[in-house]
Amino acid sequence: MAEPVFERLALVGAGLIGSSIARIARARGDIARVVVVNARTEKTLGRIAELGIADVCEIDPVRAVEGADCVVLCAPVGAYASLAAAIGPHLAPGAIITDVGSTKQSVIRDVGPHVPQGVHFVPGHPMAGTEFSGPDAGFSELFEGRWCLLTPPVGTDAAAVQRIKAFWERCGATVSIMDPEHHDRVVAIVSHLPHLIAFTICGTADDLADETRKEVLQFAASGFRDFTRIAASDPVMWRDVFLNNREALLEMLARFTEDAQAMARAVRWGDASYIEDKVMRGRKIRQALIDINQA
Amino acid sequence: MAEPVFERLALVGAGLIGSSIARIARARGDIARVVVVNARTEKTLGRIAELGIADVCEIDPVRAVEGADCVVLCAPVGAYASLAAAIGPHLAPGAIITDVGSTKQSVIRDVGPHVPQGVHFVPGHPMAGTEFSGPDAGFSELFEGRWCLLTPPVGTDAAAVQRIKAFWERCGATVSIMDPEHHDRVVAIVSHLPHLIAFTICGTADDLADETRKEVLQFAASGFRDFTRIAASDPVMWRDVFLNNREALLEMLARFTEDAQAMARAVRWGDASYIEDKVMRGRKIRQALIDINQA
Ligand SMILES: NC(=O)c1ccc[n+]([C@@H]2O[C@H](COP(=O)([O-])OP(=O)(O)OC[C@H]3O[C@@H](n4cnc5c(N)ncnc54)[C@H](OP(=O)(O)O)[C@@H]3O)[C@@H](O)[C@H]2O)c1
Ligand SMILES: NC(=O)c1ccc[n+]([C@@H]2O[C@H](COP(=O)([O-])OP(=O)(O)OC[C@H]3O[C@@H](n4cnc5c(N)ncnc54)[C@H](OP(=O)(O)O)[C@@H]3O)[C@@H](O)[C@H]2O)c1
């Protein structure tokens, strides 16, 4: 077996993402010699212990990170500022702090100031997830074949970035380095806006059902079913994502709205070829995704 | 085996839906003694013959419907008016004409006037589909456990409605009778608007990729992947659906846009509890669908 990437890995947060990392580290053995798991509640931590996917379970985040050469923040991004303020002073010299948060400019803003001299900060975002949350939702194939985007600030230690890259590759992901601002725009359109739309349309449909006092959701055809699946996601995580990627999300929603209005205009005025073109384009994009194995 | 519902069933159109019906009728034997299949092109009809799922393949729709006691229109709804004009005069006295079109007020408008005295017209819509089209996309489980909505105009012969109900039940569907206007509003929100949104957001993302000359679609996270799947659907079918359910679709898009703007405002002003409430609601709706087996 290859040398473990880390001696002591501390996961701060143990839901879908954190517990998936713990499962992988446990199963592989070449990620860290010791895996420390922290969660906010005894309930989650107890479940991690029952699952047997941590070497050490520690409810105090400060104690959890002590002596770790790698700390991964796996909580909702809205919790990062206070978590970083608490653990920052206790990070070991030479350690790496990284994260899995879905937004990156906000994470750099919230965590950056609490990272002491001599500790390396490598923000990251595995582009993998499901609509489920909590320690039982995790599974060791979660990152298999998925992208993990790293957004190290200019001047970040190259060796630290390499170790985080090796870590994610052992988790099954393909790593790409990206500028944080570009990251936030890309995820705003491919992930955050689709979620906002899904949450919204479920509400629109439910209001209609209330209004007509008739079944609506009952007839969820294939189109709608997929939207409700997306909409089943965790409220706290998504609240935090929306609030922490505000500018990019609002920009993408504005672009989408313009495009939807153009489609509405084509429908109203019977512009058949405009509609056909747009649908055809969706088809091409789908085909392109299939070709690059992202479908 | 039960008596077949029909003596001679004619399917006008043999893509995803038409060929699925043909497959079921072939496999079961209690739907019709003879299954006649018509398609627009020799190519599709030849494929139906190769698949061996029709007793008679007939390229001329007029000849296809001659002597049939049930005719099912399975073409895109934009083709219904001219198809009905052509076959109307050749429908057998006492026959039933029905359809599978995704819109119902337009179908009544386009087909109704061509239905001769003594022929029964029972508009229908199986709420089942995939993003694939053509004769090879069909499969005999397509309607299993799905709804089929019938929207017979007031005064339609009750026995004819009963036979169409029996037909769909043997196809595996659960039948519900609905007012055509209500039908069009329900499908506008649960199916047509989600498709319009999916087509649109794929274009918005692709424009962004063009603009930044950078990868965007490559990072399709789970949210976006589902949208591209929906967006892979047939351009002609969806063009026809949008143009033939214009009023309801535009109304639902307007409602959705208002709701999305309210969400945007909450994001802009940091209204965390509003966002959380909306996401929580999505979750509840998903749970409700799971409870009624529509998820
Ligand atoms: N889900 C996805 O699809 C996805 C994909 C990529 C990235 N991400 C990112 O991954 C991170 C975790 O998401 P997840 O899906 O794994 O969430 P999750 O399943 O809800 O788990 C969140 C974890 O964080 C802990 N936590 C919650 N609030 C906390 C706080 N205020 N202080 C300290 N710990 C707290 C929770 O502890 P308790 O259980 O004890 O409350 C739980 O262990 C988020 O930043 C998210 O943006 C998610
Ligand atoms: N797909 C869904 O998800 C879904 C769900 C419920 C209801 N529907 C409704 O079902 C109907 C058929 O949809 P589908 O998905 O089965 O479509 P499809 O796979 O594209 O098949 C359409 C069929 O109609 C024939 N056709 C096309 N244009 C025609 C024309 N102008 N005149 C005569 N025949 C023509 C085609 O013949 P050729 O192949 O020879 O061109 C083909 O056999 C539509 O009205 C649609 O609204 C669809």
Task: Give the topology.
The structure is a homodimer of 295-residue chains.
Chain A lengths: L5 E7 L3 H13 L3 E7 L3 H10 L4 E2 L3 H5 L4 E4 L6 H8 L8 E4 L5 H7 L8 E3 L1 E3 L20 E4 L7 H13 L3 E4 L2 H33 L9 H10 L3 H10 L1 H23 L3 H20 L4
Parallel strand pairs in A: 1-2, 1-4, 2-3, 4-5, 5-6, 8-9
Antiparallel strand pairs in A: 7-8
The structure holds NADP nicotinamide-adenine-dinucleotide phosphate (2 copies).
Structural commentary:
The structure is a homodimer of 295-residue chains. With 295 residues, chain A is α/β, with parallel strands linked by helices. Chain A folds into two domains: 6-178, NAD(P)-binding Rossmann-like Domain (Rossmann fold), CATH 3.40.50.720; 182-291, 6-phosphogluconate dehydrogenase C-terminal like domain (6-phosphogluconate dehydrogenase C-terminal fold), CATH 1.10.3660. Helix content of chain A is 52%, strand content 13%. Chain A is built from eleven helices and nine strands. Chain A has helices at 16-28, 42-51, 61-65, 80-87, 105-111, 158-170, 180-212, 222-231, 235-244, 246-268, 272-291; strands at residues 6-12, 32-38, 56-57, 70-73, 96-99, 120-122, 124-126, 147-150, 174-177. In chain A, the strands form two sheets. Chain A has a six-stranded parallel beta sheet. Chain A has a three-stranded mixed beta sheet with strand order 7-8-9, with helices on one face. In chain A, helix 6 links the parallel strand 8 and strand 9 (174-177). In chain A, helix 7 (180-212) crosses helix 8 (222-231) and helix 7 (180-212) crosses helix 10 (246-268). The two termini of chain A are 33 Å apart. The model of chain A has no long low-confidence stretch (mean pLDDT 95). At the A-B interface, helix 7, helix 8, helix 9, helix 10 and helix 11 of A face helix 7, helix 8, helix 9, helix 10 and helix 11 of B. Bound molecules: NADP nicotinamide-adenine-dinucleotide phosphate (2 copies). One NADP nicotinamide-adenine-dinucleotide phosphate binds at residues 13-18, 39-41, 44, 74-77, 79, 83, 100-102, 125-126, 129, 133-134, 137, 234, 237, 241 of chain A.
